Amino acid sequence: MAKLRVVILGAGFGGLELATRLSLAAADDVEVTLIDRSDAFTFGFSKLDVMFGRSSADEVRVPYREIEKPSVTFRQELVTAIDPVAKRVVTDSGSYQADVLVVALGADLDPAATAGLVEAGHEFYSLDGATRLASVLPSFESGRVVIGVMGTPFKCPPAPSETALMLHDYLVRRGRREATEITVVSPLGVPVPPSPATSDAILGAFAERGITYLGGQTVAGLDPGRRTASLHGGGELDFDLFLGVPLHRAPRVIEASGLAEHGWVAVDPRTLATPFPDVYALGDVANAPVPRAGVFAETAARVVAEEIISGLRGGGQVRPYDGYGLCYIEFGTEQVARVEVTFITASGPRGGPFTPPSDAVAREKDEFAASRLQRWFGRAPAPV
After folding, report:
1. Residues near 240 by beta carbon (within 8 Å), at least 6 away in sequence
2. What per-residue confidence (pLDDT) applies to 384?
3. What does the CA dihedral 206, 353, 18, 36 come to, rounded to 10 degrees?
4. Are 247 and 150 in contact (CB under 8 A)?
5. Burial of 86 (0-12, 13-18, 19+ CB in 10 A)
6. Alpha-helical segments (H) within 137-192
7. Are 349 and 343 in contact (CB under 8 A)?
8. Class (C level, CATH) for 109-248
9. Most buried pick, 104, 143, 323, 380, via CB within 10 A?
10. φ and ψ at residue 207, rounded to 5 degrees
11. pTM of the predicted protein model
12. What is the mean pLDDT of residues 309-326?
């Protein structure tokens, strides 16, 4: 009997977890093709490590060639066309016919969409951007730093706050903190809206460190000559160093495919199914009511895997997606906090437990990353 052909577009948290689950549970029944334009995986939080000189870009990249799983084949190719009706994919190297197609291509950054950002600011949401900043920050001696979000949705909502706290530590170590000001501009009224305890802890840390948080606002554009950032709704901020979270958009191939609705792939939030039979979408590219962050793509992959395996085994009840995720938040001084949130409940998003920042949670974050590398790539845990 022919194996079920599953084509997964994108090898981030969602794509890697889905391929792993299918290989572990149904290697004899599936033929998985995992396609990504990159040759390596990088944890999103590793970009801050690169930016502040804690790691190099090479150290945080994990080559996809290390994937060795039964019934999983990785292809480094650029997806150029998707036909969701025929479940056919065209890349810069060939074409693929799927029985089940899963779109997990993530969100693209669009710095050029905001006037002045490319000329006067620095984006830090890509590995290249973080690497460039690693060479810029050592020469920053004094002045006003603005960490600004251009609009919603944006990946990893706590990241701008983490950046501010880590930048504070960086400037303290260099003896330059008293000569600088740090302001965070975010569309979120508080740093983590579903978890008041987490937001209070971050805002408390900001108050202790003299960091300003401007919530409920986004940056409309930068004036390179005047070195000012204009805000939507009015107002300006002077800056000497601008760290920006660019506007996000679905990859252009999604827009041309007919999958996009209001800019993103439309899905049933409980199953991640699109309106096209046997076509799913998960992670940042999907419009499920959850933050765009890897942990939510990972839990969504569990649902899609169970849907596929249930179909192979003749049906059966699949637990619906509940939008659960846990997030590790850098608080500076090498301490990390943890928050858990469930976004899809009868009463809306529900904040779970908040664990205050500590060395113990920092170690737990390291263990979280190591466990994923072992699960997805077969990497042995680092020696203790």
Report:
1. 140, 142, 143, 144, 145, 227
2. 45
3. 0
4. yes
5. exposed
6. 159-173
7. yes
8. alpha beta
9. 104
10. -60, -40
11. 0.95
12. 91
Say which residue the tokens 């590790």 belong to.
328
Residue 114: how many CA atoms within 13 Å on its side-chain side? Answer: 33
DSSP 233: T
Residue-averaged pLDDT of the chain: 96
Q: What element of type H or E holds 305?
A: helix 294-312
Q: Where do the domains of the chain lie? A: 4-107+250-318, 109-248
What angle separates helix 159-173 from helix 196-209, to the nearest 10 degrees? 30
Q: In what order do the strands lie in the sheet with 88-91?
A: 79-83, 88-91, 95-97
Q: Residues 6 or more apart from 255 whose CB is under 8 A from it?
A: 263
- State phi, psi for 348 to the nearest 5 degrees: 95, -170
pLDDT digits 0-9 by tens, 270-297 = 999 999 999 999 999 999 999 999 999 9
Is the domain 4-107+250-318 a CATH 3.30.200.210 member? no
- Mean pLDDT for 37-46 is 96
Torsion of CA 35, 39, 44, 46, to 10 degrees: 160
Please give the structure tokens belonging to residue 310. 């249930």
Residues in the chain, overall count: 384
Cα 282 to Cα 106, 273, 303, 350, distances in angstroms: 8, 9, 10, 21
CA dihedral 102, 108, 113, 117 (to 10 degrees): 160
- 3-class state of residue 15 by DSSP: helix
Overall average pLDDT of the 99-105 stretch: 98
Tokens 């301490």 — which residue? 335
Query: Residue 277: CB partners within 8 Å, gap ≥ 6?
Result: none
- What is the token pair recorded at 250? 């679905």
170-202 per-position pLDDT tens digit = 999 999 999 999 999 999 999 999 999 999 999
Contact 145, 241 (CB under 8 A): yes
Single out the residue of 241, 242, 222, 220 nearest to residue 231, CA to CA. 220
> Which residues face 243 on adjacent strands?
122, 147
Q: Beta strands 211-215 and 180-186: pairing type?
A: parallel
